[in-house]
Amino acid sequence: MIKLKFTLALCALLFFACVGQARAAVLDSWLEAFDQRADGSTVDGYDSWQVYQGLSNNALVQFGVTPFGKGKALQIAGANPTTNVQRAFSYGSLTPSWIRFRVRPPRAAVTPAVPTAGILAVTFDPSGKLLASDGQLWVDTGKSFNFGQWYDVAVKLNFSTHRYDVYCTSSQTPDVEFLPLKSGLQFIDPNVDSLSNLEFLGAYSKASSASAYLDDISLIYIYRLEVITPPQKLMLGQASGPITVQLQNILSEPQTAVSDMVLELKSTSDKGKFSARREPWSDIRQIILPKNAQAAAVYYKDNQEGRPIINFSEFPEQGFVKGLQQLEVVSKVSFFDLQANTPQVAGVPFKVKIIAKDKDGNLNEAYGGTVNLSADYVSPRSGAAKISPESVSGFARGALETTIVYPDCGSITITAADSENPSQAGSSPQVYFVPASFRVKAEDKQVVSRPFSLEVSARNAEGMLAPNYNGTARLYPIAVSPQDIPQAVVFPSLIQGGEFKAGIAQVPVSYNLYGTIKLKAQDNIDALREGYSDAIKFLPAKLAAQISPAPGNRGFFYVGEPVAVKAQVLDALNNPIPNYPGKIALVSSAGFSLPAEYVFSLADQGAHTFLGSSSRPGNFNVEIRAEDGLLKAVSADILVKDATLVVEDTVSPVGRGEVVIKLVDELGNLISSENELPVTIRVFEDIENSSVFLPFFTVSLKGGKATVPILDTEAEAVGISASASYKIKVKRGTVTFGKGGRTGIGTLLWRELKKK
């Protein structure tokens, strides 16, 4: 676990980051406003919050101490040691990730040190300056503040570059422009790629016991405002169908607003106008995207021909990409005004209101004729489906509301033309048709992470193919067995509109986990339009049996030495399958001991290491079998040798000698590749009076041998024994201390001094 840290004048916000896992679901916005919690209650133990350091009642929800005097906030009491509050959760690794909070910082005694691990830190310094970490150093953001006032802080994280931007403004009087104080600051640890903990560290000062207050803590992934309804072609002065703008992350996934969001509405045409409703029309320049909503809709009309671009942007600015869409406005006398909601479902009856107009564009209450209905294809630009019924009548006071059906997908305009005078006609704004369902097909057995062919076809309400579907479909894995697949990823997760040909998409898809799932296809605009495949079982691609090298890369093992055998269940990309739960059998050569079988658990993450050993020399291998023997893998050969520690017999004069130890193979050859084996030495004196001295009793072999000095103060034979781990044999030796040295002759002399 790695820390990503903010510090607020010793009131610190810390984020723990860990390596990101593959995501099974959309990462969406999270908000903690404390308003739903009881006044005076601690956050400790609720919704993943924990008081990690200090008393639980040092972090209490308090009413009234908020930026605007309403609602509740979290009070972090000034205490020594400082109060540490955390919220551990898997926040993901999307770029950008926005962390925002409101804080009323107290005065602290000292500037905290920059954390040594984590992603970032900011601190409201005792000097009245806001500091931010840049790698391992504090940098001055240039922002000054007043203790006891509320501030809005935001950081924008980029996990691709491992850098971040920091923002801060007064909560009561925010800056007009939303600009970072510092951009491109380095992560403290450039290797982190995911958030998993939020942490706040309280303040303490002997001169002041003031508390820190926190409110509206949020983590959002909003990247853009995206217009998700297809572009429309409008008659001059005619109101459009609903134009829907959606909050999205960088993966085009819908996101939820954590508070009411004001959207500004603009057009490049000075004659363009917006309204929240088609009828009655009321000009607006802003619309509210409500808290907990993901999208908002407006209507547009223009009294100027051309191709105006409409613009959606948040107010005040929050750093999101603006939503843009180009419309087409054409001039044509319209004798009928057609109104229909969009989107509609292919093959499902829907209502259309037809209003007769005179040549001046006013309501023609006298009209009572019959109109012919037809579809004008917009996207795609051609098609064969027809509107049913093809003609309608029954106007009352110039208006008719009728029910019609269109059996295909795509965007069309609906044209009504007088049956006796076809030149008197009018068209609706564009109506977009989504499929009623999808049909999803694939072979029922696949290999984990190996691309396979998936067929997704758009269907209308009658189950017939909808050939003009050109929307975007999203793919989701639906667990069958096992039922818990938190790391599941279908790639790609989107089938773009251009991949549908005549309503059918044939796409290569892969899935990263073991088990049985169904694949769900879902329309990106209308989440109710979906379809499921039959159950698909995903099996491992292969097994692997890896033998860890012997220590020092000596190329063989000793009899009795542990041998690490790593069994892996792999996908098509040679990655271990993290959720593999199956049983494997291990078959080894005679004389090499290993468990006969093993059942994988989630903790193994697709790989498990066994320790085996051999009771005799020889060549051995290990075979792993899984999936009822359908998968097999054989390890490389494991060479095992007998070895003997030989202590050489030596002769030394009384005093200093040497113990020479060699490691030899079955043929008596020195094993010169051994450079690590620890050897323990024991001595056995002929005269047991502890006259022998060794400077150390454990030595590591180098080049297969070791020489150890030995001291003895008297003549005797000293037995030397060496031992090592495993089943290495031992041949004892003797160091003889006496009159005869290694060279020459030693003679004891006696001299008697006579008295004078």
Any chance you could write out the topology, listing elements then pairs?
Elements: E1 2-5, E2 12-17, E3 30-32, E4 49-53, E5 59-63, E6 72-76, E7 84-92, E8 97-104, E9 122-124, E10 129-134, E11 137-144, E12 151-158, E13 163-170, E14 182-186, E15 195-201, E16 212-220, E17 224-227, E18 233-235, E19 243-248, E20 261-267, E21 272-275, E22 283-284, E23 286-289, E24 295-302, E25 309-315, E26 323-326, E27 328-330, E28 336-339, E29 344-345, E30 350-356, E31 371-379, E32 391-392, E33 399-404, E34 410-418, E35 425-427, E36 431-434, E37 437-441, E38 445-447, E39 452-459, E40 473-481, E41 490-491, E42 494-495, E43 504-511, E44 515-523, E45 530-532, E46 536-539, E47 542-547, E48 557-558, E49 563-570, E50 583-588, E51 592-593, E52 597-599, E53 607-614, E54 618-620, E55 622-626, E56 631-634, E57 638-641, E58 644-647, E59 650-653, E60 655-664, E61 678-685, E62 692-693, E63 698-700, E64 705-712, E65 716-723, E66 729-731, E67 733-738
Parallel strand pairs: 18-27, 29-36, 38-46, 48-57, 58-66, 59-67
Antiparallel strand pairs: 1-2, 2-15, 3-16, 4-7, 5-6, 6-16, 7-15, 8-12, 8-16, 9-10, 10-11, 12-13, 13-14, 17-19, 19-24, 20-23, 20-25, 21-22, 21-24, 25-26, 28-30, 30-33, 31-32, 31-34, 34-35, 34-36, 37-39, 39-43, 40-42, 40-44, 41-43, 44-45, 44-46, 47-49, 49-53, 50-52, 50-55, 51-53, 54-57, 55-56, ...
